[in-house]
Amino acid sequence: MGSLSGSTAGASQPLKPQITVPRHWQQLNILVVEDHSAYRLLLGWLLHKLGLGHELVADGFMGLVAFTSRPFDLVISDCQMPFMDGYSMARAIRQRERNHGLKRVPVIALTANLQNDSPQRCLDAGMDAWLLKPLTLEQLHALLVRWLPGCDVSQPDQEGIVPVASWPTRAALVATFGSDVVVDSLLESLLVEAWEDHRVLRHACSTLNASLAAERLHRLVGSLVFLGGSDLESTATQLIRQVQTGGVAMHARHLEIFQARLCACLEYLSSI
Question: Which residues pair with 55 in a beta bridge?
Answer without folding.
Answer: 31
